[in-house]
Automatic annotation (TrEMBL):
Annotated region described as Disordered, given as residue ranges: 37-72, 77-96
Coiled-coil segments on the chain, per record: none
Domain VWFA: 124-266
Source taxonomy: Bacteria, Pseudomonadati, Planctomycetota, Planctomycetia, Pirellulales
Gene3D superfamilies to which the protein is assigned, alphabetical: von Willebrand factor, type A domain
Basic and acidic residues composition bias: residue spans: 39-51, 58-71
Organism annotation: Bremerella cremea
Regions that span the bilayer: 12-28
Name of this protein: VWA domain-containing protein
Keywords (A to Z) from UniProt: Membrane, Transmembrane, Transmembrane helix
InterPro entries in the record: VWF_A (IPR002035), vWFA_dom_sf (IPR036465)
């Protein structure tokens, strides 16, 4: 080794080589070459940079800009759809994959959010709790978990060793009006625990949810600024709120306040304001007792009963919270935490589908103005919105179908009576079908998967029911016009369901094929979804009629 060093020292070219090699190592072999320190285990690979170094951005500018609507499609609004147990009719692939979470589980999920907020800055936490009768079980579960949470804070201190003063808590209950139970935010955890039991019960059955949230923002927003605190608001409720239409104004106020809002509640019935199950409370003003949905700003599901009957209900767990609270949580960077209660009627045994599948079909969290602008740009979407707003259409499940020919007069009377069934249903079906058919030319312009599935299912179901009703009426008219038995010993005509309407005319046969095309497309393009389930159910009943003689 000494000989080699001596040789290098005597050779000037050798030293020049060392210098050049050193310069090369320092400069790198190009702008994309990086030398990593093998001892620096925590260092992550650096991203490619431009040749010209950019100026150092401010800390708040380092957060990438995110398109909110695109984010909604990538995740279920961070909603932990903690549903458990049940399976869909699609078997293994349609099984609910969510954990079986309770309200208490979600309260302790909030513990992580509280810890993160307190670690960042002193925090003010406001619990906004539904005090109506229907929310009794949810409220009791919240109270039990919240007491345990604050007992842990009192015993073990706040996370990261923060002092108790870094978390101040207020409690507000609501029903018909807001009630400030623990009005002055306190860091005395025992006082918080004692206040939880002071929430009064509200027997009105009314939920001024968004008015209460607005009052909370008005009251605690200034304190947030004065005390230099973060503000977290957690709404605990089993309903959508009677005043959820005011959500846009509340969102605007929340964003100007700088609040992060969370909600702990139950999933919305898919496409419905109310579930089929009996409500858990009553009201004396004639209004709907319990509004728990829909999950979209306006319903995108037509209200048409099924002709096939059967034992399956029409309630479907949407996997998302009611629109107003879900939208407010999304806009304020919070979460809607879906909980399942032990004994509450909703969602109970409602049909539910895989979270993994339903994440691909998130609602669009748009303002009312943006929503209406979207409808104005697409006739198919506008048609679905109008069709979904129609009243319930009863199914023609068990129409008169057997006609004994004793004499012409009695046969005519029987047929006239049967046709009155179709005459009663026809305008109701037309009110749903006609706008959907008129908007069909814009169907292929729809890009959103939820809207595609919803429109196709609606048009398919509406066309199927119109074909059945009009086809029934036409087949009776054919018999009334005179029809001879092929077997002279027969004296009874029976109208049976069939996969054809050719005898009723080409127009109705074309409508039958239209219905089948749209329903089968839903099943093919949206497998293992509620839309596919309803399409299959509609197809259980043949879309057509035929005469049989006996």
């Amino acid at each position: 080794m000494l000989c080699r060093l001596e040789s290098w020292r005597k050779n000037s070219f050798g030293w020049m080589g060392i210098v050049l090699l050193s310069v090369t190592l320092v400069a790198g072999c190009g702008e994309n070459v990086e030398f990593s320190n093998p001892f620096d285990k925590e260092k992550k690979p650096a991203a490619k940079q431009d040749a010209k170094p950019a100026s150092q951005p401010k800390k708040q500018d380092q957060k990438p800009k995110v398109d909110k609507e695109a984010l909604a499609r990538q995740q279920m609004i961070k909603q932990t759809s903690l549903r458990g147990g049940g399976t869909s009719r699609f078997g293994e692939s349609g099984r609910s994959v969510g954990a079986n979470a309770t309200v208490g589980d979600n309260v302790f999920r909030m513990q992580k959010e509280i810890a993160s907020s307190v670690d960042f800055a002193p925090t003010m936490l406001v619990w906004v709790v539904d005090s109506t009768v229907s929310a009794t079980e949810l409220r009791d579960d919240w109270a039990k978990a919240a007491k345990k949470l604050y007992s842990e804070f009192d015993k073990n201190g706040l996370p990261s060793g923060k002092p108790p003063k870094d978390l101040a808590t207020a409690i507000v209950s609501f029903g018909e009006k807001a009630n400030f139970v623990l009005e002055e935010p306190t860091s005395d955890f025992q006082e918080v625990i004692a206040s939880i039991d002071k929430i009064p019960r509200d027997d009105s059955g009314k939920e001024a949810t968004f008015d209460t949230i607005s009052q909370v923002l008005d009251k605690y927003g200034p304190l947030k600024s004065q005390q230099l605190r973060e503000l977290l608001v957690v709404v605990v409720t089993d309903e959508a709120g009677d005043d959820w239409q005011n959500v846009d104004a509340v969102v605007e106020k929340a964003n100007s306040t700088g609040v992060r809002l969370y909600a702990i509640g139950v999933p919305a019935p898919m496409g419905r304001m109310v579930a089929e199950v009996p409500p858990g409370e009553s009201r004396s003003d004639g209004q709907m007792a319990m509004i728990q949905g829909p999950e979209t700003r306006h319903s995108q599901r037509i209200n048409m009963k099924f002709s096939s009957g059967g034992f399956g209900g029409e309630d479907v767990d949407s996997g998302y919270g009611p629109f107003g609270l879900g939208y407010l949580a999304y806009q304020t960077r919070g979460e809607f935490l879906v909980s399942r209660l032990r004994s509450a009627p909703w969602p109970g045994s409602a049909m539910r589908f895989s979270d993994e599948v339903m994440r691909k079909y998130p609602p669009q969290y748009l303002t009312e103005q943006a929503y209406q602008a979207m409808l104005a740009e697409n006739k198919a979407l506008d048609a679905l919105d109008r069709a979904a707003g129609q009243g319930q259409v009863e199914a023609m499940a068990y129409p008169s179908s057997q006609f004994v020919v004793l004499d012409e007069a009695r046969l005519k009377n029987a047929l006239d009576g049967a046709q009155r069934i179709a005459a009663r249903l026809e305008p109701l079906v037309n009110a749903v079908y006609e706008p959907l058919a008129a908007g069909e030319k814009d169907r292929d312009k729809i890009q959103d998967k939820r809207w595609q599935a919803s429109y196709d299912l609606a048009l398919g179901r509406a066309a199927a029911n119109k074909a059945r009703v009009d086809g029934y009426n036409q087949m009776l008219a054919i018999l009334k016009g005179g029809r001879k038995f092929e077997d002279p010993t027969h004296n009874t005509w029976k109208l049976e369901p069939a996969d054809s309407l050719e005898e009723a005319g080409s127009r109705l046969e074309k409508m039958r094929l239209q219905a089948k095309q749209y329903l089968e497309r839903v099943i093919k393009e949206h497998p293992d979804t509620p839309w596919a389930y309803f399409a299959e159910r509609e197809l259980e009943m043949p879309i057509g009629w035929k005469w049989a003689e006996y």
